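Quick check before the chapter quiz. The format below is the same one you will see on the exam, so make sure you can read both the input and the output lines.
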Amino acid sequence: MKLGNVDFDNYAKNYPSPDGFFGKYGGCYVSDELKNAMAEITKAYYEICKSRKFIDELRRIRKEFQGRPTPITHLERLSNQLGGVQIYAKREDLNHTGAHKLNHCMGEGLLAKYMGKKKIIAETGAGQHGVALATAAAYFGLECDIYMGSVDIAKQAPNVARMKILGANVVEVKEGLQTLKEAVDAAFSAYANEYKDAIYCIGSVLGPHPFPMMVRDFQSVVGIEAREQFIEMTGELPDSIVACVGGGSNAAGLFAGFLNDPVDIYGVEPLGLGEKLGDHAASLSFGTEGIMHGFNSIMLKDENGEPAPVYSVASGLDYPSSGPEHAFLRDIGRVKYGYIGDDETIDAFFRLSRTEGIIPALESSHAVAYAIKLAQQMEHGSILVNLSGRGDKDMDYIIEKYGIR
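Here is the expected output.
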């Protein structure tokens, strides 16, 4: 498939460019000192990503520790309620630790061991990345510092407990809005002081090069598996695939398997409470080009051109920008990006739980809600939605705020 000047036959080899750009997005906008640290990570990644020993070890971990491949489930009862469109779910909620995040965290942990690092540092919003990285740290015998905003700590108490049980040091971030952006700020500051002995394991397809590429590559297992499984299950490709997008790691992983296929691809952003700035985190839908946290992408800005305050019911989606590859795929028209608000998200959370016996994460519930709307617009066909995580972490918060519907 070719779209404009982009040849998807060789897409992964050509994007990003050697200096980390997807078109005009991406790059490595950090201090000279941190540029050297990023160059060290890039060099090490390129060395091991083609290494048979590394690939074999990662495959073994995925099979024996993570429980991959995760299955695809036909959501038959939900589909029957909606009409003639059949909805399927890629079950990343069944990946060890309950979300897709472990896919790149085990890869980053293996990279840290290869580089001789003693500690891994990261941020987390919903806590799934923090839990996954704490798991990787325990598996590889590494120290682990996880930075998390006070608001998210209160919302995601079960995941905070899991991180501590796994041996991670959870550092509470009390500055600003006390959510994901501030956690990233704090983690970057800590890494700048410890990069000689530590590696910063970014939790999504964002940050300075090589992280948007590296996290996408590790997450591409989702799309590769899903494509093969769907064809085996149905004899054909899905008509549409859907995934939620905050930073965008689960979406990048799913999309990677289908970019070269005649499949409609949808990324779903959090509209939160509405279109007013500060009430949502739909950067690709309402933002403009800008640089933050070491990369150029589309971001939501305040009146001073700084990252705007954002909100989402899902802690893992409340970030004022999105991965540079998503901005690129939006611009060239390969992926359509829409949005879903809190109310539809909560309705989808309960509907999937009661219709199919699957309690989804609030992040994933955005994708489920969008898939439901899409199915109602289509006369026939199939939709594959990425169920990026399970909702155990969200239940106390939902019951407290919304009750049992």
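If your answer matched, good. The mean pLDDT is 95.
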